[in-house]
Design brief:
The structure holds 2 protein chains of 2 kinds. By secondary structure, chain A is of the alpha/beta class. In chain A, 16% of the residues lie in helices and 34% in strands. Chain A has helices at residues 77-83, 121-132, 152-156, 181-184, 196-208; strands at 4-16, 20-26, 39-42, 54-57, 60-62, 67-73, 90-97, 111-116, 138-143, 160-165, 172-173, 189-193, 212-216, 232-235, 238-241, 248-250. Chain A is globular and about 50 Å long. By secondary structure, chain B is α/β, with parallel strands linked by helices. Chain B has one domain: Aldolase class I (TIM Barrel), CATH 3.20.20.70. Classes of the chains: A alpha/beta, B alpha/beta.
Chain lengths: 258, 303
């Protein structure tokens, strides 16, 4: 899939609670082709401490409106600068980067998408894509507390949404891997993105039940193109770049102790 | 349109802009964004005799106006390069240059010998300045005797253009450059990264897996300019300048300080199309100042 450097226009930039923004971007030209699970490298202008681009998951692509949504966690000065952008501002983006999630195999009908924190971001685009292919994806989304859940209404438009919170303020109390659906239903494939301990717990569950499982990893990146070799992760074939060989890996290719 | 062509040893370049090793992959990674054949030269990832997995993660720390890395020369070894990568890149219509590194003199020599056999690789850049490997690497670039030993040994087996990449982590870089010149280098390139470190105060831990790493980006440019200036005054061979070049103005500064050509490294991460913007910007500067060739501004600093 051809990569592009594009100036996109901010349609809206909405604060979601204290720690996240939902940035909607558009372009005069048609947005480039991209796959669920790919990401964008967003340039941060006018930051004294942020030098490199910020790798941000593609959250949703609306082909009718020609809009790209980014769900961004405010971590440091760079992402806080992005939060100050207003409708009409321009943001320079390199995309689409990385491999993206793979399509289910023909025998894989029942699909579970497990997300935690800002890691839910790529699952909305993935779920929409899967729905367009005739699947009925189930989302299992975890957060500390009800107020930390992101984009629940958007997920509900795409598929069944199950929730866990650590304090029990919404959905079932506990971690995603404690949810009753994992005992009561069978899934043929799991896609997951979130904090590493969560993904490892999900991967462990998948491995124990011989379920095909893909994880979307996060790492500090520089080039985003597989050139600098900064963002490697251990795989059974040695170090691989999260930016270009990933960010999506099948758990059978990783060296996780699960 | 000014004449942008330059010659580095036997290497004829259509323009003086190259990409720095380890920042541009094998060129292919950037081919979606620009016509990479329009770059004067592409210096591919550091290549060693044997396969190297490189250092553990984390390998990168962002710093004000720059970044630290400790990749540690991850590459699949020279034989893999010759068999699998060379056939893919040999027909790219620009100078494809291989950066060669090693743990001992024999490794450098054996790697250079194999690259010497590749007809479409017109030059190597001998990396005697990598700060991120335990053995060899920078050790050869921090003493005159070390530089002399590895450059003269490689010179005996390598018949094409030999560029030697120097470390800034030395007391007197001009002396090292003179040793490389005396040992038969056709050119010196400088600077490699400056050794630095980053600390996560909350966790009371280093950010990089190797504790220290190499600093690059605009924060190193003043040091690089100073070193190019010092080296260009004392060697007769052409100097290739690099260190924090983000745009054409930065590149011009290196020419004025004495560089005959320049490399762009970390800037490729911010703007994958920066190389050709720098080529265009150099041309614009030369036209605006009434110069007919980039060679006219090499070392033209009015002190």
């Amino acid at each position: 899939m051809k990569k592009h450097i594009v100036d996109l226009k901010v349609v809206s930039n909405e604060k979601l609670g204290d720690k996240h923004i939902l940035m909607k971007l558009t372009s005069d030209a048609l947005l480039p082709e991209m796959r669920p699970g790919q990401f964008a490298e967003v340039r941060v202008d006018n930051s004294s401490t942020t030098f490199l681009r910020r790798p941000i998951s593609i959250h949703f692509v609306d082909r009718v409106k020609n809009e790209l949504d980014l769900l961004i966690q405010l971590v440091g000065d760079g992402t806080r600068k992005l939060a100050t952008l207003k409708a009409g501002d321009t943001v320079n983006v390199v995309l689409p980067l990385g491999n993206g999630f793979s399509d289910p195999q023909p025998q894989q009908k029942s699909l579970l998408l497990v997300g935690g924190g800002v890691g839910v971001a790529p699952l909305l685009d993935l779920g929409s894509y899967l729905k367009s292919k005739g699947y009925q994806p189930t989302f299992l989304l975890g957060a500390r507390s009800a107020k930390d859940l992101l984009q629940i209404a958007a997920f509900e438009k795409v598929g069944r949404v199950l929730v866990t919170t650590e304090d029990g303020s919404c959905g079932e109390k506990g971690f995603v891997t404690n949810h009753s659906v994992l005992k009561n239903e069978q899934f043929d494939k799991i896609y997951t993105c979130g904090p590493t301990p969560m993904m490892k717990a999900v991967a462990t569950f998948a491995a124990q039940h011989a379920i095909d499982c893909e994880v979307s990893l996060e790492n500090k990146m520089a080039c985003g193109l597989g050139a600098c070799l900064c963002c490697v992760t251990e795989t059974k074939e040695g170090h691989k770049c999260v930016c270009s060989d990933g960010p999506v890996f099948n758990i059978k290719d990783l060296t996780w102790q699960i | 349109m000014a004449d942008l062509s330059v010659k580095i040893g036997g290497l004829q370049m259509k323009n003086p802009v190259m990409t720095a090793s380890g920042t541009f992959g094998y060129g292919e990674e950037y081919a979606d964004f620009i016509d990479i054949s329009q770059i004067g030269g592409i210096i591919v990832k550091g290549t060693t005799l044997a396969h190297r997995e490189g250092n553990p993660y984390p390998r990168m720390a962002e710093t004000p106006s720059g970044m630290l890395n400790c990749v540690g020369l991850q590459n699949k070894g020279v034989d893999y390069f010759v068999q699998n990568i060379y056939p893919r890149i040999k027909d790219i219509q620009t100078n494809m240059i291989v950066n060669v590194s090693g743990a001992c003199v024999d490794d450098y020599v054996a790697t250079a010998e194999k690259i010497n056999e590749l007809p479409n690789i017109p030059a190597i850049e001998l990396n005697i300045s990598c700060p991120n490997v335990k053995q060899g690497g920078m050790a050869f670039g921090t003493t005159c005797a070390g530089a002399e030993s590895v450059v003269s040994a490689v010179r005996k087996v390598y018949k094409k253009t030999l560029i030697v990449k120097l470390s800034p982590n030395v007391t007197n870089i001009a002396e090292i450059a003179q040793s490389a010149e005396a040992a038969g280098a056709d050119s010196v390139s400088l600077i490699n990264t400056l050794m630095g470190m980053a600390i996560d105060a909350e966790r009371m831990k280093p950010v990089l897996s190797t504790v220290t790493g190499g600093l690059s980006g605009p924060c190193v440019k003043p040091v690089a300019l100073r070193m190019v200036w010092q080296v260009a005054k004392v060697v007769k061979i052409p100097v290739v300048g690099l260190g924090g070049i983000m745009n054409a103005t930065d590149a011009i500064e290196f020419f004025l300080a004495g560089a005959s050509a320049i490399q762009i490294g970390t800037a490729n991460f911010i703007d994958p199309a920066v190389t050709l913007k720098v080529v265009a910007g150099i041309n614009e500067y030369l036209d605006r100042h009434g110069f007919s060739s980039v060679k006219e501004i090499v070392g033209a600093l009015k002190v």
